[in-house]
Protein backbone atom coordinates (compact mmCIF):
# COMPACT_ATOMS: atom_id res chain seq x y z
CA UNK A 1 0.00 0.00 0.00
CA UNK A 2 1.24 3.44 -0.88
CA UNK A 3 2.13 5.66 2.02
CA UNK A 4 1.71 9.41 1.78
CA UNK A 5 1.31 12.46 3.98
CA UNK A 6 -2.16 13.14 5.34
CA UNK A 7 -3.47 16.33 6.89
CA UNK A 8 -5.92 15.60 9.69
CA UNK A 9 -7.92 18.41 11.29
CA UNK A 10 -9.66 17.95 14.64
CA UNK A 11 -11.84 20.30 16.63
CA UNK A 12 -11.22 19.52 20.30
CA UNK A 13 -12.34 20.80 23.69
CA UNK A 14 -9.90 23.11 25.48
CA UNK A 15 -9.14 20.70 28.31
CA UNK A 16 -5.89 19.47 29.87
CA UNK A 17 -4.59 16.20 28.41
CA UNK A 18 -6.31 16.31 25.00
CA UNK A 19 -3.06 16.82 23.09
CA UNK A 20 -1.41 14.03 25.06
CA UNK A 21 -4.27 11.60 24.33
CA UNK A 22 -4.10 12.42 20.61
CA UNK A 23 -0.33 12.01 20.42
CA UNK A 24 -0.49 8.76 22.42
CA UNK A 25 -3.04 7.31 20.02
CA UNK A 26 -0.71 7.98 17.07
CA UNK A 27 2.23 6.53 19.00
CA UNK A 28 0.33 3.34 19.91
CA UNK A 29 -0.55 2.84 16.26
CA UNK A 30 3.08 3.31 15.19
CA UNK A 31 2.55 6.58 13.31
CA UNK A 32 5.16 9.30 13.33
CA UNK A 33 3.60 12.76 13.51
CA UNK A 34 5.43 15.03 11.03
CA UNK A 35 3.88 18.13 12.57
CA UNK A 36 1.15 19.09 14.97
CA UNK A 37 -0.21 22.60 15.45
CA UNK A 38 -2.88 23.58 17.96
CA UNK A 39 -4.59 26.92 18.46
CA UNK A 40 -7.89 28.60 19.24
CA UNK A 41 -10.73 28.13 16.77
CA UNK A 42 -13.65 30.38 15.85
CA UNK A 43 -15.70 28.73 18.63
CA UNK A 44 -14.97 29.64 22.27
CA UNK A 45 -13.51 26.76 24.32
CA UNK A 46 -12.64 24.72 21.21
CA UNK A 47 -9.19 24.40 19.68
CA UNK A 48 -8.29 23.41 16.15
CA UNK A 49 -5.60 20.77 15.87
CA UNK A 50 -3.82 20.14 12.56
CA UNK A 51 -1.81 16.92 12.41
CA UNK A 52 0.37 15.83 9.50
CA UNK A 53 1.25 12.14 9.49
CA UNK A 54 2.38 9.62 6.93
CA UNK A 55 0.45 6.42 6.19
CA UNK A 56 -1.77 4.64 3.71
CA UNK A 57 -5.33 5.86 3.19
CA UNK A 58 -6.74 2.87 5.10
CA UNK A 59 -4.30 3.30 8.01
CA UNK A 60 -5.15 6.98 8.35
CA UNK A 61 -8.88 6.22 8.16
CA UNK A 62 -8.44 3.76 11.07
CA UNK A 63 -6.60 6.45 13.05
CA UNK A 64 -9.32 9.02 12.22
CA UNK A 65 -11.99 6.66 13.57
CA UNK A 66 -9.96 6.08 16.76
CA UNK A 67 -9.44 9.83 17.24
CA UNK A 68 -13.19 10.36 16.82
CA UNK A 69 -13.75 8.17 19.89
CA UNK A 70 -11.67 10.38 22.19
CA UNK A 71 -14.20 12.08 24.45
CA UNK A 72 -12.86 15.63 23.99
CA UNK A 73 -12.84 15.40 20.18
CA UNK A 74 -15.82 17.17 18.64
CA UNK A 75 -15.00 16.41 15.02
CA UNK A 76 -12.07 14.99 13.04
CA UNK A 77 -11.52 15.01 9.29
CA UNK A 78 -8.76 13.90 6.92
CA UNK A 79 -8.66 16.86 4.52
CA UNK A 80 -5.81 15.50 2.40
CA UNK A 81 -8.00 14.81 -0.62
CA UNK A 82 -9.72 18.19 -0.51
CA UNK A 83 -8.68 21.46 -2.11
CA UNK A 84 -6.93 23.06 0.87
CA UNK A 85 -4.93 26.12 1.81
CA UNK A 86 -2.00 25.23 4.05
CA UNK A 87 0.71 27.37 5.58
CA UNK A 88 3.61 27.19 8.00
CA UNK A 89 5.45 29.90 9.89
CA UNK A 90 9.23 29.84 10.26
CA UNK A 91 11.60 31.98 12.28
CA UNK A 92 15.18 31.68 11.05
CA UNK A 93 18.13 33.37 12.76
CA UNK A 94 20.92 33.84 10.22
CA UNK A 95 24.51 34.95 10.75
CA UNK A 96 24.90 38.36 9.12
CA UNK A 97 27.83 40.71 8.80
CA UNK A 98 27.87 44.17 7.27
CA UNK A 99 29.06 42.54 4.02
CA UNK A 100 26.34 39.87 3.82
CA UNK A 101 23.35 41.76 5.26
CA UNK A 102 22.17 43.28 1.95
CA UNK A 103 22.36 39.92 0.14
CA UNK A 104 20.31 38.30 2.90
CA UNK A 105 17.76 41.11 2.66
CA UNK A 106 17.41 40.53 -1.10
CA UNK A 107 16.70 36.83 -0.55
CA UNK A 108 14.19 37.69 2.18
CA UNK A 109 12.41 40.12 -0.18
CA UNK A 110 12.20 37.54 -2.99
CA UNK A 111 10.36 35.18 -0.62
CA UNK A 112 8.06 37.94 0.68
CA UNK A 113 9.43 37.27 4.13
CA UNK A 114 10.46 39.93 6.62
CA UNK A 115 13.28 40.68 8.96
CA UNK A 116 11.87 40.93 12.48
CA UNK A 117 15.07 41.34 14.50
CA UNK A 118 18.56 42.66 13.77
CA UNK A 119 21.71 42.44 15.85
CA UNK A 120 25.35 43.13 15.08
CA UNK A 121 26.00 39.53 14.01
CA UNK A 122 22.60 38.18 12.92
CA UNK A 123 19.14 38.83 11.50
CA UNK A 124 15.94 36.99 12.32
CA UNK A 125 13.67 36.23 9.38
CA UNK A 126 9.94 35.53 9.62
CA UNK A 127 8.41 33.65 6.70
CA UNK A 128 5.07 32.05 5.97
CA UNK A 129 4.17 29.70 3.16
CA UNK A 130 3.99 26.07 2.21
CA UNK A 131 6.60 23.53 3.24
CA UNK A 132 8.50 23.78 -0.06
CA UNK A 133 8.75 27.59 0.07
CA UNK A 134 10.14 27.55 3.60
CA UNK A 135 12.60 24.78 2.75
CA UNK A 136 13.80 26.74 -0.30
CA UNK A 137 14.30 29.87 1.79
CA UNK A 138 16.19 27.86 4.40
CA UNK A 139 18.44 26.32 1.73
CA UNK A 140 19.30 29.76 0.31
CA UNK A 141 20.07 31.17 3.76
CA UNK A 142 22.05 28.11 4.90
CA UNK A 143 25.37 29.19 3.30
CA UNK A 144 25.34 32.34 5.48
CA UNK A 145 25.09 30.19 8.60
CA UNK A 146 21.87 29.30 10.39
CA UNK A 147 22.14 30.05 14.11
CA UNK A 148 18.63 28.85 15.00
CA UNK A 149 15.39 27.90 13.32
CA UNK A 150 11.87 26.97 14.37
CA UNK A 151 8.81 26.08 12.29
CA UNK A 152 5.21 25.80 13.40
CA UNK A 153 4.24 22.83 11.29
CA UNK A 154 1.35 22.90 8.86
CA UNK A 155 -1.99 24.52 9.54
CA UNK A 156 -4.68 24.00 6.95
CA UNK A 157 -8.29 24.66 5.98
CA UNK A 158 -10.44 23.35 3.16
CA UNK A 159 -11.33 25.93 0.54
CA UNK A 160 -14.92 27.02 0.01
CA UNK A 161 -17.86 25.84 2.06
CA UNK A 162 -16.34 22.75 3.67
CA UNK A 163 -15.50 23.28 7.35
CA UNK A 164 -14.36 21.19 10.29
CA UNK A 165 -16.62 22.26 13.14
CA UNK A 166 -19.46 21.09 15.35
CA UNK A 167 -22.41 19.85 13.34
CA UNK A 168 -24.94 21.79 15.40
CA UNK A 169 -22.97 25.00 14.73
CA UNK A 170 -23.16 24.45 10.96
CA UNK A 171 -25.19 26.98 9.05
From TrEMBL:
GO terms of biological process kind: isoleucine biosynthetic process; L-valine biosynthetic process
Gene3D superfamilies: 3.30.70.260, ACT-like. Chain A, domain 2
PANTHER family per UniProt: ACETOLACTATE SYNTHASE SMALL SUBUNIT (PTHR30239), ACETOLACTATE SYNTHASE SMALL SUBUNIT 1, CHLOROPLASTIC (PTHR30239:SF0)
Protein encoded by which gene: ilvH
Oligomer status and interactors: Dimer of large and small chains.
CDD domains: ACT_AHAS
Catalysed reactions listed for this entry: 2 pyruvate + H(+) = (2S)-2-acetolactate + CO2
The keyword Secreted is annotated on this UniProt entry: no
Pathway where it operates: Amino-acid biosynthesis; L-valine biosynthesis; L-valine from pyruvate: step 1/4; Amino-acid biosynthesis; L-isoleucine biosynthesis; L-isoleucine from 2-oxobutanoate: step 1/4
Annotated protein name in UniProt: Acetolactate synthase small subunit
Amino acid sequence: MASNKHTIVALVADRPGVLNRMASLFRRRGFNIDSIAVGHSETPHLSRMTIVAEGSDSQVEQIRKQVEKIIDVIRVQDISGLDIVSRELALIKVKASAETRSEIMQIVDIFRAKIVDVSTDSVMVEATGDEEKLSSLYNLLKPFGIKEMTRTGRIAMARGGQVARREEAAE
